[in-house]
């Protein structure tokens, strides 16, 4: 019994077509047929019903499938571990993340680095508008992202981690002009909401962060005004620089705005939006076929913190 036979069996069981299985594995159809025939002879059973019109798993094929997957996964894990040891590291962990997940991710990484100091961690910040790739092309062990940007796929396990609150960001000088303590206008921590239709907005672009952009539009629609958008940027620092320079106001994720507003000379005022209906849910996703031993260790820490 060879790994190529196992791989061919699994592929055919997924696509139920020998031609498509051969194309997916990058081999001639005759190779797929021969490997399946050899495997059936070794097992002494038929794994597929084959006619000119369709291909179906037999009862024996369905029974063998989970064990075949375990064999292939074990081989991949073994090859991965050997490759890591050959490279001189105890392991390597690859994570894609957005800045809204920094707090939860940092909490997990601190414990991980304390327990497993010999494992290398690769971090890649990705666009908020970048969806997950298919498992075959995915180079990351974990994705920390907005829940609504993670596709509902059988390839991934998904767990919610936290919600990120939104906030108004305004220049400190302009913020003082937006305070009206002695009338009946609606306020958010002293911020006069009636002034919002007359303000210029500096926003993160829809392409960079479609979920945030949608929530901002929802907020404006609920409060019955169309925002006057003066400019759009692909990063929060550019938005904050523009706001601090008096070019407009913005709505941003609270944690990111608070961290950057604490930097010298930003000159901005952060006002939380306490309405939870505009909060954004963040999540972590990982492949169900988790092949990396270091990723399994990190998953244990994630689950401990989620509990």
UniProtKB/TrEMBL annotation:
Does the keyword section mention Cell inner membrane?
no
Which terms are listed as keywords in the entry? DNA-binding, Transcription, Transcription regulation
Question: Where does the HTH lysR-type domain start and stop, copy by copy?
Answer: 1-58
One example of the protein's molecular function in GO is: DNA binding
- According to the lineage, what is the superkingdom? Bacteria
InterPro entries assigned: LysR_HTH_N (IPR000847), LysR_subst-bd (IPR005119), WH-like_DNA-bd_sf (IPR036388), WH_DNA-bd_sf (IPR036390)
Task: Give start-end of the signal peptide.
Answer: none
Q: Does the keyword GTP-binding apply?
A: no
User: Gene3D superfamilies per the record?
Assistant: Periplasmic binding protein-like II, Winged helix-like DNA-binding domain superfamily/Winged helix DNA-binding domain
Q: Name one GO cellular component term.
A: protein-DNA complex
Similarity comment: Belongs to the LysR transcriptional regulatory family.
Q: What is this protein identified as?
A: LysR family transcriptional regulator
């Amino acid at each position: 019994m060879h790994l190529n036979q196992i791989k061919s069996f699994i592929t055919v069981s997924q696509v139920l077509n020998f031609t498509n299985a051969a194309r997916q594995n990058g081999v001639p159809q005759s190779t797929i047929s021969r490997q399946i025939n050899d495997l059936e002879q070794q097992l002494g059973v038929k794994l597929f019903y084959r006619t000119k019109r369709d291909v179906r798993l037999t009862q024996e094929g369905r029974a063998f499938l989970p064990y075949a997957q375990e064999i292939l996964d074990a081989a991949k894990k073994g090859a991965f571990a050997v490759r890591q040891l050959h490279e001189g590291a105890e392991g390597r962990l690859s994570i894609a993340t957005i800045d809204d997940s920094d707090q939860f991710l940092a909490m997990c990484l601190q414990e991980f680095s304390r327990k497993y100091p010999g494992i290398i961690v690769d971090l890649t910040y990705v666009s908020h508008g970048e969806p997950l790739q298919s498992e075959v092309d995915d180079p990351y062990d974990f994705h920390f992202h907005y829940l609504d940007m993670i596709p509902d796929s059988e390839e991934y396990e998904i767990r919610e981690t936290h919600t990120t609150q939104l906030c108004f960001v305004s220049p400190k000088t302009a913020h003082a002009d937006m305070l009206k303590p002695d009338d009946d206008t609606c306020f958010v921590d002293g911020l006069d909401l009636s002034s919002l239709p007359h303000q210029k907005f500096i926003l993160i672009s829809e392409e960079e962060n479609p979920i945030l952009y949608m929530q901002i539009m929802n907020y404006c629609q609920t409060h019955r005004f169309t925002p006057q958008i003066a400019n759009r940027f692909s990063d929060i620092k550019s938005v904050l620089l523009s706001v601090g320079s008096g070019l407009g106001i913005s709505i941003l994720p609270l944690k990111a705005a608070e961290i950057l507003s604490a930097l010298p000379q930003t000159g901005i005022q952060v006002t939380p939006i306490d309405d939870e209906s505009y909060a954004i849910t963040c999540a972590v996703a990982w492949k169900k076929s988790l092949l990396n031993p270091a990723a399994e260790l990190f998953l244990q820490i994630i689950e401990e913190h989620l509990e």
